[in-house]
Design brief:
This protein is mainly alpha-helical. Helices cover 56% and strands 4% of the residues. The protein binds heme C.
Length: 142
């Protein structure tokens, strides 16, 4: 094998490996919804990976009437928790949901994820930001 070939063999594979690594990093990071990470760390343990709930204990949230008809009540519900019994998709649930600590930016990310993934027809057609979250919370506390 010529010296020129050996040099190529030493350079080409590492360069390809580096390009592959950069490509994978870029592709993976552009796919991960920031709200998905929040959902999986703060909600999925009770409401399930796909919002299906936990039998008889935790109501589902996937495409339920609360998400469809009262989407704007979610920021305050999540921040303040819920003590009343709720009737969801034909069943009563009466375990309390404790308040969940999230900043308004984290809440905005979470709600964008829920709007994209937990509703057959999107509820809001804009990108939710922290100002929208704060507005809904102050409306509910009046
Ligand atoms: C420790 C378990 C637990 C966690 C964690 C949790 N929830 Fe809940 N969630 C519940 C329970 C239990 C209820 C029913 C509360 C009641 O009956 O008063 C509920 C109720 C709800 C409801 C109202 C359902 C309806 O249609 O009335 C929504 C929406 C909701 N949760 C969303 C979330 C979101 C979003 C998160 C994450 C930020 C979350 N929950 C985290 C247990 C949990």
């Amino acid at each position: 094998m010529s010296k020129q070939w050996l040099t190529k063999l030493m350079i080409v594979p590492p360069v390809l490996a580096l390009l592959f690594f950069l490509y994978m990093t870029f592709v993976n990071s552009s796919y991960e919804h920031p709200g998905r990470i929040i959902y999986y760390s703060k909600c999925a343990s009770c409401h399930g990976d796909h919002g299906e709930g936990t039998q008889n204990l935790v109501p589902p949230i996937y495409n339920t009437s609360t998400l469809k008809n009262s989407f704007e009540t979610l920021p305050s519900l999540i921040r303040n928790g819920l003590k009343d019994s709720v009737f969801v998709e034909g069943k009563w649930y009466n375990q309390p949901m404790y308040p969940i600590q999230l900043s308004s930016v984290e809440m905005a990310n979470l709600l964008n994820f829920m709007n994209d993934s937990f509703l057959v027809e999107k509820k809001v057609d804009f990108v939710i930001n922290s100002a929208w979250v704060e507005t809904q919370i102050s409306k509910m506390s009046k």
